[in-house]
């Protein structure tokens, strides 16, 4: 391979030729000046087959003409903001106003995060959340959420390998009628996979970091073969724990593979994809912030130093002999997609998919030396079949979208609780102290009609209607299954509380307006409603006593309005948001008896999102983005008393990012250094005792975090390594100032740490300073 001859001037011209003029995102095109080789487009090197004009459009942070507020996170964003082997949600948090990410372990993709968009969350939280599946997660436009599962409707650990993805699209709120999905409440987040370019290519990425973390991934593009282009990718990531303990439970690790094939034909495009993920996560115990009577590092009532963050250490956790939790996820997804031009102005899109998921949680708790449920064995499985089809009709001054989707879900959830202090009551034995089994069914059918009207050149109005039908069936089959599984068990408690069914039909309207004030300044406003079914426990899943099932689905009434600006190196937006959520269900689980308390609730979240970014392709660049949100909740407590105006659990009022960077080209290398400063204000707690939010703040939850990243993209080694087109080396420092902070917590009723611990605040600490390095070679 001949040496690529590059100069600073030729590289800069090549960069500009790709159209990448985003203020703080540039993809490089390395021009081979020899006559017998084409220019190398870095987008194609990394598996993206897109033209320069499309890239220019996609890389704009502020889409001026969008009828709703959206953010596009590019592949370059993901690379610049995701530490090696870590979760892509770090990139969303660094680039998306109003987005918050809180992780329960290290930044690894094998660990799960709680994520919020405009204060509405999905993913694991400790307790008391009124809206637990409030954001729709898609992969290539295909839904990943389990609509029935509570905290486990989606885990970020299901998408652990960031190098597989070319971008992320974020839509705020339900969006327009065409954008509605069954969990599109706070927003919709679509993770877009890479595709093969016209020419064969490949990359290899390896990395390592703090806490014995390491990862490796690869992607291969076949190029065009008889019109077919196929992309194959796979990866593995693992991390140890940042916690200090006499005995830790082990690492968290995740692997994934992905295959996608596509073919363009005269009037359309066909694609097929398959994805598999296997994650095993080990999680240490939450830690009491302050000591409680009888609690020591050796167990409840056992002699030893007091157990708490302020006594035994901020990151201390009891030995895994006293407490451990292991979770396993398996995800399978297959899909077919077809786009056809039926005529010059009519296009038909359709997709069919099947997603299967399995989750197993095993928990052992020997901290409390007293009779109790010591071990949980909690397997679940789900299957989701769906179809979506829609037509786009382009008419003079109008673009009409009409279509719909159908998804059917089955969800099997069983739970076995054992007491290890009784001989024979070990995990996997035939004698659980408590056992339940539920087989549930869910379906959604949606039809939408949307019209994008352009009465004059400077104004677009997009009204729409979405007709939605949901059906839920929760079926307790414990009395049937327990007789087969545990025929000789006379000790166990097998609850026979019946489940429930529900059927809802609703119309969800939306209106979006975009007005051109100047070519660089647009105003927009969106009003949208959507409906969502409540989680399984609201209909009796796992209950030891009857619950009152909801008579209406959860509802959001969403307003957002603001200004967008993009001119040369300067981009900005400011938007005001008002969200009213009603008919929510708060679930509180009392672990000893598996009683489920379900209380109705509603939330109101008002606030402001903002973004201001400046920068040229080379030189200094800066950005300021964030949100100021005020969320309140109305509900009832365990005693049936009204709780009105409580602060929404886990939501910081202030979430602000400031980033500053510099880029320069020298010695055939593009050098980049970036610092990001994130401030999050304190959050409020809920209580397992009262089954309601509190006025207590989570100690050490207000935090200012600084991250630093350095990278070099170079061609200087091309003549030394056959086939090499580009090498990228990166170094990232997470929590540079080594701040101690808590990410989640709740007020305990005493179930985890036993007598004397009721009323204690239990917390999950954030990760201390960490360093991650990686090297990527593209061929």
UniProtKB/TrEMBL annotation:
Predominant localisation class: membrane
GO cellular component: cell outer membrane
Location(s) in or outside the cell: Cell outer membrane
SUPFAM superfamilies given in the database record: Porins (SSF56935)
InterPro entries associated with the record: Beta-barrel_TonB_sf (IPR036942), Plug_dom (IPR012910), Plug_dom_sf (IPR037066), TonB_rcpt_CS (IPR010917)
Residue intervals of the TonB-dependent receptor plug domain: 65-178
Pfam families: Plug (PF07715)
Highest taxon, organism lineage: Bacteria
Keywords, alphabetical: Cell outer membrane, Membrane, Receptor, Signal, TonB box
Gene3D superfamilies xref list: TonB-dependent receptor, beta-barrel domain, TonB-dependent receptor, plug domain
Protein name per the record: TonB-dependent receptor
Organism this protein belongs to: Acidithiobacillus thiooxidans ATCC 19377
Lineage: Bacteria, Pseudomonadati, Pseudomonadota, Acidithiobacillia, Acidithiobacillales
């Amino acid at each position: 391979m001949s040496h690529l001859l590059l100069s600073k001037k030729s590289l800069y011209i090549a960069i500009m030729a790709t159209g990448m003029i985003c203020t703080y995102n540039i993809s490089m095109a390395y021009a081979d000046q020899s006559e017998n080789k084409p220019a190398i487009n870095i987008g194609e090197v990394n598996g993206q087959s897109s033209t320069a004009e499309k890239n220019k459009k996609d890389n704009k942070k502020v889409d001026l003409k969008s009828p709703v507020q959206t953010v596009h996170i590019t592949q370059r964003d993901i690379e610049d903001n995701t530490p090696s082997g870590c979760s892509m949600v770090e990139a969303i948090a660094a680039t998306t106003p109003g987005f918050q990410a809180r992780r329960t372990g290290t930044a690894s993709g094998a660990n799960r995060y709680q994520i919020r968009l405009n204060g509405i969350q999905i993913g694991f939280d400790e307790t008391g959340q009124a809206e637990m599946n409030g954001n729709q997660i898609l992969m290539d436009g295909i839904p990943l959420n389990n609509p029935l599962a509570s905290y486990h409707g989606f885990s970020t650990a299901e998408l652990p390998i960031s190098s597989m993805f070319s971008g992320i699209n974020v839509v705020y709120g339900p969006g327009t009628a065409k954008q509605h999905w069954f969990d599109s409440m706070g927003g919709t987040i679509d993770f877009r996979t890479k595709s093969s370019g016209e020419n064969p290519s490949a990359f290899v990425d390896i990395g390592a970091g703090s806490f014995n973390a390491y990862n490796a991934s690869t992607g291969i593009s076949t190029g065009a073969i008889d019109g077919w282009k196929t992309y194959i990718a796979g990866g593995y990531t693992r991390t140890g724990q940042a916690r200090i303990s006499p005995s830790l439970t082990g690492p968290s690790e995740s692997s994934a593979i992905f295959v996608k094939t596509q073919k363009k034909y005269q009037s359309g495009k066909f694609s097929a994809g398959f994805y598999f993920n296997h994650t095993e996560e080990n999680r240490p115990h939450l830690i009491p912030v302050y000591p409680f009577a009888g609690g020591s590092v050796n167990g409840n009532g056992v002699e030893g130093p007091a157990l708490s963050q302020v006594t035994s250490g901020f990151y201390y956790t009891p030995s895994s002999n006293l407490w451990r939790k292991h979770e396993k996820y398996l995800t399978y997804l297959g899909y077919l997609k077809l786009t056809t031009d039926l005529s010059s102005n009519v296009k038909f899109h359709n997709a069919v998919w099947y997603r299967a998921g399995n989750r197993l949680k095993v928990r052992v708790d020997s901290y409390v030396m007293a009779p109790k449920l010591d071990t949980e064995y909690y397997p679940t499985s789900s299957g989701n079949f769906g179809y979506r089809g829609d037509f786009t009709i382009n008419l003079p001054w109008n673009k009409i979208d009409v279509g719909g989707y159908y998804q059917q879900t089955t969800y099997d959830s069983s739970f076995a609780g054992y007491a290890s202090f009784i001989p024979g009551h070990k995990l996997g034995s035939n004698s659980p102290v408590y056992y339940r089994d539920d087989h549930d069914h869910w379906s959604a059918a949606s039809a939408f009609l949307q019209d994008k009207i352009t009465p004059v050149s400077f104004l677009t109005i997009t009204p729409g209607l979405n007709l939605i039908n949901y059906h839920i069936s929760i079926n307790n089959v414990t009395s049937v299954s327990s007789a087969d599984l545990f025929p000789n068990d006379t000790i166990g408690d097998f609850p026979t509380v019946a489940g429930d069914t529900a059927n809802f039909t609703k119309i969800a309207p939306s209106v979006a307006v975009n007005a051109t004030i100047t070519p660089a300044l647009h105003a927009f406003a969106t009003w949208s409603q959507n409906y969502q079914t409540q989680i399984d426990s609201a209909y009796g899943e796992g209950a030891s006593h009857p619950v009152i099932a909801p008579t209406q689905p959860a509802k959001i009434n969403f307003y957002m309005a603001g200004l967008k600006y993009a001119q040369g190196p300067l981009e900005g937006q400011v938007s005001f948001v008002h969200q009213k959520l009603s008919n929510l269900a708060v679930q509180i689980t009392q672990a000893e008896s598996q009683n489920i308390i379900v209380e109705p609730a509603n939330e109101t979240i008002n606030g402001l999102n903002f973004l201001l970014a400046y920068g040229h392709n080379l030189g200094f660049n800066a950005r300021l983005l964030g949100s100021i949100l005020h969320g309140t909740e109305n509900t009832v407590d365990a005693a049936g008393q009204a709780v009105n105006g409580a602060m929404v659990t886990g939501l910081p009022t202030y979430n602000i990012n400031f980033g500053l960077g510099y880029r320069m080209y020298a010695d055939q290398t593009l050098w980049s250094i970036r610092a990001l400063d994130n401030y999050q204000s304190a959050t409020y707690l809920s209580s397992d005792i009262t089954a309601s939010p509190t006025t207590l703040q989570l100690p050490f939850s207000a935090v200012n975090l600084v991250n630093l990243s350095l990278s070099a993209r170079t061609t200087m080694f091309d003549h030394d390594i056959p086939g090499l087109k580009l090498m990228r080396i990166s170094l990232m420092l997470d929590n540079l100032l080594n701040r101690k902070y808590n990410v989640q917590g709740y007020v305990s009723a005493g179930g985890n740490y036993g007598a004397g611990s009721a009323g204690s605040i239990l917390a999950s600490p954030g990760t201390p300073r960490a360093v991650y390095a990686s090297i990527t070679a593209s061929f």
